[in-house]
Amino acid sequence: MSVVPFTGDEKVTVPGILQRKSGISSTNSSPQKITVLTAYDYPTARLLDEAGVDILLVGDSLGMAVLGYDSTLPVTLEDMLHHTRAVRRGTRRALLVADMPYGSYHGETQEAVRNAIRYVKEAGAEAVKIEGGERRMDLIMRLVEAEIPVMAHIGLTPQSINALGGFRVQGKTDESSNQILRDARAVQSAGAFAVVLESMPRELATQITAELRIPTIGIGAGPACDGQVLVVNDLLGLSFGHKPKFVRRYANLGEVISRAVSEYCQDVQQGRFPADEESYHLSAEHRRTPVGSH
Fold first, then answer.
1. pTM of structure
2. CA 65, 67, 69 angle in degrees (round to 5)?
3. Catalytic residues, which ones?
């Protein structure tokens, strides 16, 4: 496996991410933006980590990106733990954050805390991400008390698509934008170390970023956020169906894979693979004696 090595070997930590907040320190008034990508398996995690991504997010987007579901809702806690373990094995430098899936934190707070502890103890996650603003304040506080760092997620929250009526941009009305502002203030007050702002007008995200003391991570929220996150399959051209407006495709690996597999099939069917140099041989001595002869 070959990648361009990243020279910054210092481990990314939650306190380090907090220090990357724009203007939080007089000695670091223009910190480097925070880079976040999703990862769902060992080889991808290793490549992203070695390339210098700051935060690897084991997103419940694996439901659509990897498992073939239409939404994130069917993803289970066991699915998430399984993939988080794989990503952990490929991660050395980046901060490892894992999504808590729908249903794993919507019941009793005590159960939600137990589920979050499993991420840390069994899968090696260094933080969890949960969706929702004001209504998650008590849970965020309990998780922080349990020494589990929390990344919040507001705006378009994919686990709420039934309530929201689909994947729609949020914050386009006064009522909606005011609620998102309240959500942002709430998750900061509760102790979240960062907050994802998804699918909202860039002007609203700019206002939230300027007001909060914790980093904002944008996805479809404009360039003013302290960092950006994308689903790695979208970035690499490995996704199907609709491409959101905010996605920039940096490669088209889907086309590369299709072409490579097509060539492989043709070579097998026409006898070009495996070639002699790709085959094992008997020694010269054994070639003189037919196999099974005495």
1. 0.93
2. 85
3. 198
